[in-house]
Specification:
- By secondary structure, the protein is an alpha/beta fold.
- Strands 12-11-13-14-10-15-18 form a seven-stranded mixed beta sheet, sandwiched between helices. The protein has a six-stranded antiparallel beta sheet with strand order 6-5-4-9-8-7. The protein has a three-stranded mixed beta sheet with strand order 1-2-3.
- 41% of the residues lie in helices and 22% in strands.
Length: 574
């Protein structure tokens, strides 16, 4: 007995109607019986209840608005569309899947295959065709909006070609048509959609690049690049030109890199975008840094500092003069930490000036100066000028050379509090690095008051937190890691018998969302000053800082994993 025969048995339809329903489904709806019944006016909810009982599959009415984009990532859009199923929840690490046709054996086999690849069990529920269609619309997101704009472009080109009796397609575009398409509303819409989705998705960067056969738009989220959109070749020039117009860059200059910026209001917030173009083989590559002031300038208590490290920073800020250096590779959050420190200062009573390249976020009551090396306005030149501005506190974006290093130290020696960044692998490499840059140890010893190193690591989403007992292998690794730390310090550490990992959840399939910093830092006291005067190696600085209780970035990550903030796998990346 099939479903239509069951409806006939229950008196919902007449037996004589069965063939006409099948014919209607074949002629108008590609064989879909549900659509045929809906057009004939049958109550969908009642039919769904009967179908649930007939196929012995539990029914589920769902609120599609509560289905997150992260949940949709479990099942590809193509599979959901082709096999008529979609993810509707993740409970107790079991994927809940909504289906519209329990008799579709091929679809159930495909679902079994997908779940096997994900290594996650699943349960099926019968959902209405209406809810299923809404879920499929949710899949569209950025792709759907951009596809709509692309179809508008195709229609415009086709209409123009038909009027003029010429071929269509990218190859048919005449000289001068590129400029027209640049200003077309669909191109403007595509760029607007890209910017909005990047902001809503918490992306830090947007990359637009032509690979020769396609145009990729990638978003960097939590430090990882993901391809979010593929565009056809014929809109690449228009999209690049639209971004250049927004950033006030020269449209006719395609042989040299250009830098610019612009602001846009998205969801009621002012978002700044820093734009960089780079000539490449298949056309200019465009990179946009997304700068959301509401998220960018954090409180110093929100950047991942332990109580001990926070106390070290606050003690350094209480000093009347000296040099505070933050080190780490590009993208390790140094600028965020610097801004957080600036945010902590009494900017009303003190004259605070920053030299930056570029200025990323605007901080009230701080005189922020943008470096322009092309006209000779470098960090070194800026420092000389700043010292004539009666500063109390100076932030130098980065110490890149001997001249800037010596000027920063001279500023610290003459009664100013100076913050800056340096490129070394860890905190204990700061002193040897300054010496390598030609700075004399007798200048470093009395000025350096705090050395900091940091990296960014993923954070566990609250519903994805999973405690794991420490096994023998991990216990041995942890004991070896902390072996050279003095016992009186080691006993005070919040080391527990469990670590935490990130597991998939309905709200967050990856298990992690956002990033926090892990730190290592040492303060310079009299004993450290004496060591610096002896031109120490990195190991000499480490041994003394360790004896005084300095924890490494890896150890900070271990503690954060035991506290449930960071997945333990991040420890191995440090």
């Amino acid at each position: 007995m099939n479903f239509l025969e069951e409806l006939s048995r229950r008196g919902i339809i007449q037996e004589s109607q069965i063939q006409s329903i099948i014919n209607l489904a074949d002629e108008k709806f590609g064989g879909d019986i549900d659509d045929a019944l809906a057009q004939m006016g049958f109550d969908e909810k009642k039919l769904l209840t009967i179908k649930s009982e007939f196929f012995r599959v539990p029914m589920r009415m769902i609120d599609v608005k509560k289905i997150s984009l992260d949940l949709l990532k479990y099942i590809p859009e193509a599979s959901a569309t082709n096999y008529k199923f979609a993810p509707i929840g993740l409970v107790d690490n079991t994927l809940e899947v909504g289906i519209t046709d329990p008799s579709n054996v091929q679809g159930l086999d495909a679902l079994q295959f997908i779940a096997g690849k994900l290594n996650v069990p699943f349960k099926i529920f019968l959902i209405s065709k209406q809810d299923y269609n809404k879920i499929i619309q949710s899949y569209k997101g950025i792709t759907g909006e951009v596809d709509q704009a692309l179809s508008e472009i195709d229609n415009e080109i086709a209409d123009t070609a038909a009027d003029q009796g010429v071929e269509t397609g990218p190859a048919a575009l005449k000289p001068g048509e590129e400029e027209k398409i640049v200003e077309d509303a669909p191109i403007i819409k595509i760029v607007a959609v890209i910017l909005r989705h990047a902001t809503e998705g918490n992306a830090s960067d947007i990359h637009v690049e032509n690979t020769g056969d396609k145009v990729k738009v990638r978003f960097r989220v939590d430090g990882v690049l993901h391809t979010s959109l593929i565009l056809p070749q014929n809109v690449f020039a228009g999209v690049v030109a639209r971004i250049k117009i927004l950033a006030k860059l020269r449209l006719d200059e395609k042989r040299k890199p250009q830098d610019g910026n612009f602001s846009a209001k998205i969801d009621g917030r002012k978002i700044d975008f820093r734009v960089s173009t780079l000539p490449a083989v298949y056309g200019e590559k465009v990179e946009l840094r997304v700068l959301d002031a509401d998220k960018g300038v954090k409180s110093i208590s929100d950047i991942g500092l332990s109580k001990e490290n926070l106390a070290l920073i606050k003690a350094a800020l209480a000093r009347p003069y000296g040099l505070i250096l933050i080190t780490g590779p590009t993208g390790s959050g140094k600028t965020t930490t610097l801004y957080s420190i600036l945010n902590e200062l009494d900017r009303e009573k003190e004259n605070v000036i920053s030299l930056e390249d570029p200025v990323e976020y605007h901080i009230p009551d701080v005189s922020q100066s943008q470096m322009m090396p092309e006209i000779g306005y470098t960090f070194a030149a800026g420092l000389r000028s700043v010292l004539r501005q009666d500063p109390d506190i100076i932030m130098v974006g980065e110490i890149r050379d001997n001249e800037t290093a010596e000027l920063a130290i001279q500023a610290a020696l003459t009664g100013h509090l100076v913050f800056s960044t340096l490129h070394t692998n860890n905190a204990t490499g700061i002193v040897p690095r300054l010496i390598d840059m030609g700075v004399d140890p007798y200048l470093i010893a009395p000025t350096l008051i705090l050395g900091i190193a940091q990296r960014l690591v993923s954070t566990i989403y609250p519903t994805s937190k999973h405690a794991v007992p420490v096994d023998d292998a991990i216990k041995s690794m942890i004991e070896k890691q902390f072996a050279d730390l003095p016992d009186e310090i080691k006993t005070k550490l919040p080391l527990t018998g469990q670590i935490h990992e990130a597991i998939p959840s309905a709200e967050c399939p990856s298990g992690t969302r956002g990033r926090t910093a892990v730190f290592e830092m040492f303060a310079v006291d009299k004993e450290m000053e004496t060591t610096i005067l002896k031109r120490p190696t990195q190991q000499d600085i480490y041994a003394l800082a360790r004896r005084k209780g300095m924890l490494t970035m890896r150890e900070d990550a271990i503690i954060k994993s035991m506290e449930g903030t960071v997945p333990f796998i991040e420890v191995y990346n440090l």
